[in-house]
Amino acid sequence: MKINVINAANLFFPTPSLELVLFEAIANSIDAEASKIDIDINVDSFAKPETLSFIIKDNGVGFIDENFRKFSNLLEVEEEDHKGIGRLVFLKYFKSVNVVSYYDKKKRTFSFHGKFDGENELNETKEEGQGTTLTFENYFKDKIKSYDYIKPNALKKSILFHFFPLFYAKKIKNENLIITIRLQTKDPNMDYGFFNDTSTLDISKMSKLEEITFNEQSLDFFQDLHIYYSVKENLEDESLITAISVDGRTIPVNILSKENIPRGYEIVFLLFSDYFTGKVNTSRQELTLGKGELRTVTKIFQDKIGEILNEKIPYIQKRNTEINKGLNDRFPHLQGYFDENSVGIIDRSKSLEIAQSKFFQEQKEVLDSSSLTEELYQKSLEISSRLLMEYILYRNIIINKLKEIDSTNSEDDIHNIIIPMRKTYKQSNFINDLYTNNAWLLDDKYMSYNTILSDKEMDKLIDEITFEEEEIEKDIKRPDIAIVFSGNPDKTEKVDVVIIELKKLGLDLAKKENVVSQLKQRARKLLQYYPDKIQRIWFYGIVDIDEEFEISLLEEKFANLYSTDKVYYKEHSVILDYETKKEIPVGLFVLSFDAFLKDAETRNATFLNLLKESFKNESSKAKSHN
Fold first, then answer.
1. Is the peptide bond between 531 and the residue preceding it cis, with omega within 30 degrees of 0?
2. What molecular function does GO assign, one term (predicted)?
3. How far apart are CA 342 and CA 622, in angstroms?
4. Do residues 223 and 274 lie in contact, with contact meaning Cβ atoms separated by under 8 Å?
């Protein structure tokens, strides 16, 4: 062999798996028309890889002169589905392979190693029969990467998968092939199922496959495509094979995973066509189709598999309908982006991720456009609606979180859901704060704020109102939430102010009544700036209103207002100072926690239902056009 064998092995097989050594040896035996192959694996211990050896024996025609000549000359092949280099992978793991071959009462022996140049011995023998034995010795890797590479049962499955098309073709022709795999070890490891064992693969026992044949002109070829498949229940031995058959081997294609099919099924899908002949790399691990071509082939294969699975396993279609309904109900702003033609059971997380990615790409397309065509204009309107829906859904999450509040929660728990404590929000940062500032819970008009102060001192609030620092007597306690806003802050320095006091659920009467006192104290401080700096003020107390507290409010002449629960209002007269005793009327609202929550939920539900119906109608129109 006029070539550096080791360099050639590194070139053609840079990172092969140990299994490939066995695959290539089996392929050579099958090429030699063997009907029986014995594989003996010997290793003292998994932790002693240097003791590993393979002995592979077959009853094929052996290394006759022509076969040996081809073996000795790299890349010499006569068939398009052969590469002529498979034997090089032997030297990626073993320093030498000793070969003994019998045929026509002759015995040929040679050693395949890094300096092999065709030397061999050919002797006459009285032995009858034919066959070849390969002994793989001097394993030189520092470890064996997986127990499965040398366990008989695991190897049986790998061999069956790798050669499934070839084995099935032989089965159809009633050709026999039995492969026996044996493991001998001095140091078994029961935790890993590693022990002396034997497993047999008999192709006559392979399941019979159904077949569909079709043509696909989009691939620009005239050869038919054939899919051989089997879908049957097998609770004891679940398996999944989706592959393209090339040159008698299987090239795995990632169409679906075991998680996408119900438990307890044995599934095989193989795509055949003469078009694929020779279109595989030297290690037979990857197709050499172009990217676009491979995408087309994969999509065709995927669609056919989906059709067959939906027919054979009705549960898949039923489950997918449930998942899609759940996704559309939970994420209506992504309606129309979910893939309803997935192969197997839809992966909910992946489907959501893909839908979000599609939505983001369409947003990007609109934002990156230098001018809006009519089509882009319509798309921008749709995207705006979807973004609004996304925000309304976020609001729904906040409402549901507040529904979980009970008497075991602190006032801080309620406070932090509405607006995080010790935070200051400015209108200039509105978009960034949109998903943490929930002032809309009280009223949507309060989202037009200039500033929101959460659990901040009164002097900070006064500074916001007067636009300058003023020395004032500081309160011992800070207002829970203060909102400063104006209908048109660009034209007036006068502002509107909202003061909110919160109380935890389950308090006694005295502490509930304290909310009214606190609101009056805030009013007294702020009315000093009315009407020069403040044009309107709203005071809200949010508290758990039970029968006892309701009686107290009625005694104080609070009026019951219309709401989904209990809301009371009273106009108080507040005296600013002792000397003048000037009275200014102030309106105080006291609302139950349930009224605060349910009113917000009702308002949000109106938006939510309106947008949902809009997307449903749009989705129905799109489907009718397709």
1. yes
2. ATP binding
3. 19
4. yes
Q: What is the pLDDT of residue 11?
A: 54
Q: Which residue has the tokens 């959501």?
A: 352
CA 130 to chain centre: 54
Range with the largest mean pLDDT of 68-72, 83-87, 381-385, 531-535: 531-535
Beta carbons of 355 and 331 less than 8 angstroms apart:
yes
CATH topology of domain 5-206: Heat Shock Protein 90 (3.30.565)
Give 370's DSSP letter: S
The DSSP code sequence of 470-503 is ---PPPSS--SEEEEE-S-TTT-S-EEEEEEEE-
CB 550 within 8 A of CB 590: no
CA angle 228, 323, 295 (to 5 degrees): 40
Query: Between 253 and 154, where is the model more confident?
Result: 154
Please give the Cα distance from 443 to 450 (Å, whole number).
15
Q: Where are the domains of the chain?
A: 5-206, 218-312, 314-404, 409-598
- Give the SS3 label for residue 302: helix
pLDDT for the residue 78: 47
149 and 126 Cβ atoms separated by less than 8 Å: no
Sign of CA dihedral 328, 334, 335, 340: negative
Sheet of 197-202, strands arranged across: 121-124, 106-113, 94-103, 131-139, 53-58, 36-45, 178-187, 197-202
- The helix (run of H) or strand (run of E) holding residue 568 is strand 567-575
